[in-house]
Amino acid sequence: MSPLKAVTDPAAFFERRANDLSVVSAGVIVLLAAIINVVGTVLLFRGIFSAASELPGEVMTIMYATTAIGILVVSVVVWFLFAVAFHVLSTFVYDGDGSFVETLAITGWGSLPKVFAALVSLVIISYVVFVQGLVTPDLSDPQAIQQYVQSIQTRPVFQLSTVATIGATLWSGFVWISGVSEVQDISERDAFVVVAIPVAISVLWTLYNLL
Q1: Phi/psi at 155 (5° precision)
Q2: How far apart are CA 46 and CA 28, in angstroms?
Q3: Segments making up each domain of the chain, as ranges
Q4: What is the distance between the alpha carbons of residues 207 and 38, in angstroms, rounded to a whole number?
Q5: Residue 195 to residues 88, 173, 180, Cα–Cα distance (Å)
Q6: Could you report the per-residue pLDDT of 12-32, keeping only the tens digit for each?
């Protein structure tokens, strides 16, 4: 069965493959989305600081490396936290009997929509950098840099990236319902409640950071 079935027909996908999905393959999906986000973020930084000749190359390298590591670590942590939330709620509220490893695997596979969202963000960033263009702010003023980055994020085209992120989270939620129901052996109605709580928190956090 095609891996894309996980996002187009999750009920059928997890019914057939829930028991043979590995944490490794799930981790690859999570890291793929993270790597695409790293590429987009580095591209944005290069666009902002391209005229910053006063910044040593070593400083730029450290900034890129720190950003990349941060995005990768946060992506893995978020994957783990979602899995913990699903497992704890399923086990203690609805007497689910699935293992945490199984829950971790379906959580990673349910993150496939985030790969699509990351690609959308990359396209948007490429448009902003190469079409709209960016300028380098006053690097001697941290507040000016922060204000400039915020001004970029409030551009209408960048709002599409936020919409894509929220849409991907909701799409992942749709996928996770079937996955949690299958591995924890609980009804889809109960799985909906299990998934809805952390997904709602994630969406609200995204909206809060937008303000």
Answers
A1: -65, 140
A2: 26
A3: 9-210
A4: 21
A5: 11, 6, 8
A6: 999 888 778 899 999 999 999
